[in-house]
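task queued by scheduler; priority normal; single chain, no ligands, no partner chains; default sampling; output format set to structure tokens
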Amino acid sequence: MAGSGDTDGEVVFELEHCIRIFKGGRVERYFGSDPVPASTDVATGVASKDRAISPDVAVRLYLPPVTGASGEGEGKKLPLLVYFHGGGFCLHTAFNFVFHAYLTSLAARTRAIVVSVEFRLAPEHPIPAAYEDSWQAVVWAASHASGSGEEAWLTEHADFSRVYLAGESAGANIAHNMAMRAGTKGLPQGGKVNGVVLVHPYFLGGGNVPSEDWDPAMAENVVKMWSVVCPATTGVVDDPWINPLADGAPALDGLACGRVLVCLAEKDVISDRGRAYCEGLKASGWAGEVEVVEVAGHGHCFHLVDFNGDEAIRQDDAIAEFVNR
């Protein structure tokens, strides 16, 4: 048992069966940290491989079959989907079995090349490390638009007129922030972001919202989690990173795309934050189109538990239609 003077023994944040963070900086993760190797999926034909971008950032790429059984589709370029995994900025790896299986399935369903980003986790690397790493990956992927990049899957098969940013939970938050940064800084080779897919986005805000009543303890945890992963936050729920509607947040009309798809789950405690984001985006003067797909009877990131379930397939079908329109 830790002594009273042992600050490392004081738990400052815990999600049961997931993570425990101690005041002294020690972190214990119980789920999502074990990688599985890249492979070719027999059922779908989707191939995957890993590439290091820098000492801090890596990606796993997913390539669906580029030809049909009789050569149909040969030479046709595929949409490019840059994907950011969830986990509250402090859990999971892009290479774990859950995201590997899900993104193999999503690549097959969307017929898109997926670039899944491995970014550094908090609290060892507090916010904004995840955003900086993710931007590095976006720029790296976009740099292949010239046709001379280092990754052949991108130079040979990606259609850089159809670039999408996507993610779930914290990854959806990252996707939004990357689209905002692209609106300010632009992308290499004159690249453009066509659309953003936000699945159960991790946004916070002041006051209470009705969706928090589904699970008040979890609603409290998602606020506490932010204070742990971003200890330098300007005001917890009013930090523009986590609350795009906060006073002082960048104007949403600067979002670097013309289309946004937001997926919501009825029993997700932060679903009303996602709904408010949609309304705020519409009211901002942004000239694009917002689409919302909501699933009844399910909670946060339900699709990662069973992405072959009927409602998960409906959600992924909406993503596929959005990406291929």
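post-processing summary
- The domain at 36-324 is CATH 3.40.50.1820 (Rossmann fold).
- The first helix runs from residue 97 to 110.
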